[in-house]
Automatic annotation (TrEMBL):
Domain Gamma-glutamylcyclotransferase AIG2-like, chain residue ranges per copy: 48-166
Transmembrane segments: none
Name assigned to this protein: Putative gamma-glutamylcyclotransferase
UniProtKB keywords: Transferase
UniProt keyword annotation of Transferase present: yes
Biological source species: Aspergillus nomiae NRRL (strain ATCC 15546 / NRRL 13137 / CBS 260.88 / M93)
Length: 176
């Protein structure tokens, strides 16, 4: 019995992440070593790392319209840094040794991911990250997603006008 080409191809593609262990096909610091961002369509559920207002279970309950406050896990990510965007912390790309602490939530659907993106606005982009959990539960590390400042990080650090973010936010509103 021969398989259709689509079935054969699907059977050969390994899962990027297992619920029981971290990826074995790439080094643990792979996400920090890459020069170009790797964008893959997440399969749900997928962990999201939060570092600011979304670390509040009450806030997540409200944004996601959950029946009760979610359980969050303490975690950290490497290779990112925090800068201030007005009164709010903004995650930017940092040095390999930089560590940001926060919490994670297991996003269960595309609908939840869209609600989070709407809350964060287009001032942030979803990026891949390696999450290191700070509790005694498994998994200890896992690939996930994080909201990263979408503007000019250097302009943010220097507290000057961010033309890149302004253009992003104004796209389509100025008759372009």
């Amino acid at each position: 019995m021969s398989q259709k080409p689509e079935e054969s191809k699907a059977l050969q593609i390994p899962s990027l992440f297992s619920a029981k262990e971290e990826p074995v096909s790439v080094p643990p610091d792979y996400l920090l070593q890459r020069d170009e961002p790797v964008d893959f369509t997440p399969t749900f559920p997928v962990y999201y790392f939060f570092y600011g207002t979304l670390t509040s279970p009450a806030q997540l309950k409200r944004i996601l319209d959950l029946p009760k406050e979610p359980q969050l896990r303490k975690a950290e990510v490497n290779g990112f840094a925090i800068a201030k965007w007005g009164d709010y912390p903004a995650l930017i790309n940092g040095k390999k040794e930089d560590v940001v602490t926060g919490s994670t939530y297991l996003v269960k659907s595309e609908e939840e991911a869209q609600k989070l993106s709407h809350y964060e606005t287009n001032a942030y982009e979803v990026a891949d990250c390696q999450i290191y959990f700070k509790d005694d539960k498994d998994p200890k590390a896992f690939g996930g997603k994080v909201f990263v400042y979408a503007g000019d990080a250097q302009a943010l650090l220097e507290q000057r006008f961010d033309r890149k973010l302004w253009n992003r936010q104004m796209a389509g509103k100025l008759g372009r």
